[in-house]
Specification:
single chain, alpha+beta, Translation Initiation Factor IF3, Alpha-Beta Plaits, 3 domains, six-stranded antiparallel sheet, five-stranded mixed sheet, 5 helices, 11 strands, 37% helix, 37% strand
Length: 243
């Protein structure tokens, strides 16, 4: 037998042995996965796009004076003007809440050192708007010129956009995430000729409420309030038995 023929024979023999070993390993893997008591754990997720249905907007109205009483009266007067303006814009009075006054003392300083003399007081009243009219809040929060023109010293905070129906969709989202987990488990098990059985355990992750198409996540959950259009993500980790 020539050297070339002998080499070809050895190569064929090695290939045959490799195929037998691979088949044995595959059979062992299938046998292990299908062994009674085996299980598989996978992660499933579900997303839902929603629009904010509740807006919270806070306005800080400030009044100053040489005495605390004078500053309080000025702040109260400005807050009432702001309230009247918001009611005129279509917000019901029940949607408005006037918070307790916050007082700051304006002390005199010379060369960075306090003299002990009080120059005046500054009192702030916060007016909170809580409304399902999200569009109206978004429009008004972008321009406070009308209030400033009336002499009301007001500073508006960025609105918080919320989704009040989150508790109602938690259940359906978790169900969708569980179905996604089962589909993934079936794909993995099917590759080794096993089948997915009953659920043996479920671990529910935190919900993530983010802006649309955002990649931000947080281990403790996230709730973005800056954007009106949101995406809610539910994650579950499910353990299935294998048959």
């Amino acid at each position: 037998m020539s050297a070339n023929a002998s080499g070809a024979t050895r190569a064929a023999l090695i290939m045959a042995i490799a195929l037998v070993v691979a088949a044995a390993i595959g059979a062992y893997a299938v046998g292990n996965l299908k062994r009674a008591g085996d299980e598989i754990t996978v992660t499933g997720s579900a997303k839902r796009a929603v629009n904010s249905d509740l807006a919270v907007w806070r306005l800080d109205v400030t009044g100053g004076g040489q005495t605390q009483a004078e500053a309080t009266r000025n702040a109260q007067d400005g807050a009432e003007k702001a309230r009247a303006f918001l009611v005129a814009q279509g917000f019901p009075d029940s949607a408005l809440t006037l918070r307790a006054p916050f007082t700051m003392i304006q002390n005199e300083y010379i060369n960075g050192n306090p003299t002990g003399r009080i120059l005046g007081y500054q009192v702030t009243r916060q007016l909170e708007v809580r409304s399902t009219d999200v569009d109206r809040v978004a429009t008004l929060s972008g321009d406070l010129t009308a209030l400033l023109d009336r002499g009301v010293p007001v500073v508006g905070q960025p609105p918080e956009y919320l989704y009040a129906q989150l508790p109602e969709i938690r259940g359906p989202l978790l169900a969708d995430a569980t179905r996604d987990a089962k589909a993934r488990a079936e794909e993995i098990a099917g590759a080794v000729e096993a089948s997915v059985g009953r659920i043996k355990g479920v671990r529910v992750g935190v919900f993530q409420v983010t802006r649309r198409n955002s990649t931000e996540v947080n281990d403790y959950g996230m709730y973005d309030t800056s954007d009106r259009q949101k995406e809610i993500t539910a994650v579950v980790r499910v353990t299935f038995s294998l048959e």
